[in-house]
Task: structure prediction
Amino acid sequence: MLQVLLDKLYKENKLGRDEIVLLLRQLDEEHKEVLFNYARLTKERFYGKKVYMRGLIEFSSICRQNCLYCGLRAQNSKAGRYRLAKDEILECCSEGYRLGYRTFVLQSGEDPWYTVEKMVDIIRSVKEKFPDTALTLSIGERSREEYEAMYAAGADRYLLRHETVSRRLYEQLHPGMSFDERQNCLKILKEIGYQVGAGFMVGLPGQTEEDLAEDLCFLKELNPHMIGIGPFIPHSETPLKDTKGGTVEDTRVMLAIARLLVPDSLMPATTAMGTLHKQGRELALQAGANVVMPNLSPVAVRAKYALYENKICTGDEAAHCRHCIEGRIQAAGYEADMSRGDSCRLHIG
Ligand code: SAH
Ligand code: SF4
Result:
């Protein structure tokens, strides 16, 4: 039965919710290897051996939200807070460009200090100075007008994980936020024309196999260009400090199924995977991931951007990260690609 489900997933790139639940419940070591192998073959059919490099700039650790899982939540008075000025952001981009990066990801807490005018100015400046780069934003929920203005200014892509498609779980984890609003933001971003990234965490307290199956079905339906899936890592200064968190193995299973459901997606091997396991990112690449996001943030602020604790690479210069990750990609049997790395969907229409 397992083999039948896996073959259907591999050949047809689809599986119903109940079939995914069955798969998750019954998956043994032997079939897990079959799943990972199918995910690798599928990824390589679309992207070959390439793993795309994105330079990540975490430009503000200040956040107005209170997501229960996150170390940057507003109510965490122990969090170190900083904001990078436009010039500092441009400096990070210059360093990244010099190292060969052609995609920059600007990520932050939900920080209203960066008004849409400020964001538009930053985006325009980056794109004027580095016209052959792609720019990705990951700054949370904003209005349609703001998303439109930032797109018009030159932003190409937007990462906004849906976090969980279970309304019950979403509302438990996000006091003061609305499930419908999150979903609406994703819809708007898509309508505007951004290459959109959705995704979720694995191992949230109260998350069931049914919830995860629904997250995967949601991704299939949304059909985003990018999919971010990583393990939840509890942070000691949050209400979820005593919970268990996600595992590398469970996350790999989610990555592999997501790869098979949305075969041409761009999926990062997350830093959270590298934090849980020395070879976590390599293991993610071998389960279907094909993007890495080395850090370009100034070393002086790195440790303060603590969504979770013990984050790797917080003391390393950008040049070091670039070479370290390249070595890891090669060791995993892949090759680092420094180009813009757009979704192959854009080339074939
Ligand atoms: N503020 C923006 C972007 C930064 S947070 C936003 O929320 O969209 C980026 C992602 O980090 C979130 O989408 C969430 O899925 C992930 N994250 C937050 N806390 C985490 C934790 N403790 N462990 C693992 N991932 C976490
Ligand atoms: Fe803020 Fe994003 Fe963390 Fe939520 S996940 S508290 S929005 S930084």
Notes: The radius of gyration is 19 Å.
